[in-house]
Amino acid sequence: MFKKINIIVLTLLIFLLIGCKNTNKSNDEVANDIINSINVSVNNEVVIEDFTVPGGVVYDNVRYLINWESKNENLLTFVSNGFSYDAKIVRQIEDKEVSFTASITYEDITKTKEFSVTIGKLDSEVSTGDLPSDVTYTGYYADMTGMFGSYDDFFNTLNDILVSTHTNHLSYSDVWTALQESDAYDSEHIECFYTGMLIDKDARDGSGNTDSGYVWNREHVWAKSHGFNDEKYTAYADAHHLRASEKTINSSRNNSYFDEVTNPTGTDEYGNRWTGSVFEPRDEVKGDVARILFYMVTRYHDSELTLTLDNTGNYGNEPTLGMLDTLVKWHYEDPVSETEIKRNEVVYQYQGNRNPYIDHPEFVYYLYQEESKALGVTESNVLEKVKAPQEVEDPTIPDLISDIEALRDKTITLEDKALLDELSARYNALNQADKSKVTNYDLLESKINEYNKLLGIEEIEYDLYANFPSTSNSYGKESTVTINNIEFYTSNYSTKDGLFLLGSNDTNYEKPDAKYNIGNWNKYSVLEFYTSSLTGISFKAGKSYANLDGCHLLYSSDGLTYELVTDFSITEGDENFYTFTEGKTGYFVLVVEGKQPRLNISDFSLSF
């Protein structure tokens, strides 16, 4: 009996010792130990191939999941494969350093650790000179060395490279998968070529997945009716010229050729302009279009096709497209972007061949010398002409990020109002592109909410879609509804596909009451409500339709004379908010204005 008791006591003692071995450490210290135990073999090294990072780390016999995040997803992305992550790199024409972070959560504490790698440049050239023709090329373009003396040598050699390395001919069905990767904006969305809209990756045309209200399809930038209107042609499913495009704008482009349009019969808010036969895309992709078509001309000079570009403007079903002068101009005006470089690499992995005019935009000079020289481009200055301007980041952004981060462990009190107002003002002073770079803005937002709770301020979400009557096929309606004890009046609306649409495409639309017309707007629609002690308004912008010029918040204490409070963003996906310095009582009006103003609104909230 004595021995048995001793065994039980000994077992209990061992259990207590094991179970208590970390009782002398705080949760914060344990979290630091866990994050510091993570190591990456390629940290601070040069990489030229994809690598692997762990999916978790074991500490005290417990496995903690690791979340990996790249500081530049154009260069480095992480894909989970279960117990680890594949780190996918995109090599460019120069070495690029990219940082990435690992994060773990222990109890309620999250810790991060930063790593970096240098992504080695593409092995395309080993020596340089004053002219592209002086370069000794290796790797993919090795055969181009010494081939710049005549047009035939240049063109035929480059054609041989593109044809011989095009080892995997995709089916038209395969293209869906390729575009979901090559045209991805993030893990869930593709970016529409002509509009820049972000659309659910799975909402492809014909899939039946239309929850977002938008679908995308496979746009032939070189319209297939101009030479290869049959899937038997390799060109039909060449991913280098197929782009993910929102279905509606794809129909507007149809099979038009490309040129600058002076008298458009159609336009949209993205910058696209068109007539029945000509399409001018938004400025952001004009160079992309040109380089895609230059690739097609060079690749498809084979036994099946002889594609050409010219300036005739007479294009039936022949394998010819234009306008050549304009395309060369666009190439120099809109240099190669990081998005194109990333996409070229992805398609290269799928097909085996590359777009040389993305890797070496100076090659366009040798393809179209006469057109280039007419623009003042010569062999001696072409390298400078094709160089993309360096993006200048607002120098205040790093300091703002740092100052917001200092709030992380801070307990907010009523004395912090000035600090929160100052950080909010600095954020709001940035343009939309720079706002997206403030990666910890949600932290500032959460601290403002903490402060508002101290004041007794409550944020209430109002579901406009569910409460306004459905008018899926009718515009120009007026309605008043009560939501959460607030009465809303709208001068024109539609609820469709799970979205609240403020505005109309009715050409006979009459202006609402002139009292709203502060800015001499062309046409406009309003969402009006009356309330007391309003401290803030927020909503998310959805799709903005053709001819929408702006969105504004107005205020009136008596409902007779209105003043402009602020302008809101109409860029799809942008979060809009405005906070009053003190509670406001009166009439509030959200205005959309333009020739045919229409804007989807979601996540609409008021704070009191």
Structural description of this entry:
The chain is α+β, with helices and mostly antiparallel strands. It is 26% helix and 29% strand. It contains 17 helices and 31 strands. Helix 14 packs antiparallel against helix 16. It starts with a helix and ends with a strand.
What fraction, in percent, of the residue positions are helical? 25-40%
**Mean pLDDT across all amino acids:** 84
Q: What's the number of extended β-strand segments?
A: 31
Distance between the termini: 71 Å
Total domains, how many? 4
- How would you sum up the major sheet? 10 strands, antiparallel
**Structural class designation:** alpha+beta
Q: Give the DSSP E fraction (strand runs of 2 or more residues).
A: 25-35%
Global geometry? globular
Runs in which pLDDT lies below 50 for 5 or more consecutive residues are: 1-21
Number of helices: 17
Kindly provide the radius of gyration, computed on alpha-carbon positions and rounded to a whole number of angstroms: 29 Å
Set down the secondary structure blueprint.
Blueprint: H1 2-19, H2 27-36, E1 46-47, E2 51-54, E3 56-59, E4 62-65, E5 67-70, E6 76-80, E7 84-89, E8 96-106, E9 109-119, E10 125-127, E11 136-137, H3 151-165, H4 174-182, E12 189-191, E13 198-200, E14 216-220, E15 242-246, H5 247-253, E16 257-258, E17 266-267, E18 273-274, E19 278-280, H6 286-299, E20 308-309, E21 320-321, H7 324-333, H8 338-351, H9 356-359, H10 363-367, H11 369-373, H12 382-385, H13 396-405, H14 417-428, H15 432-435, H16 441-454, E22 459-461, H17 464-467, E23 479-483, E24 486-490, E25 493-496, E26 499-503, E27 523-544, E28 548-556, E29 563-568, E30 575-594, E31 598-607
Parallel strand pairs: 1-9, 16-19, 20-21
Antiparallel strand pairs: 2-7, 3-4, 5-8, 6-7, 8-9, 10-11, 12-13, 14-15, 17-18, 18-19, 22-31, 23-24, 24-27, 25-26, 26-31, 27-30, 27-31, 28-29, 28-30
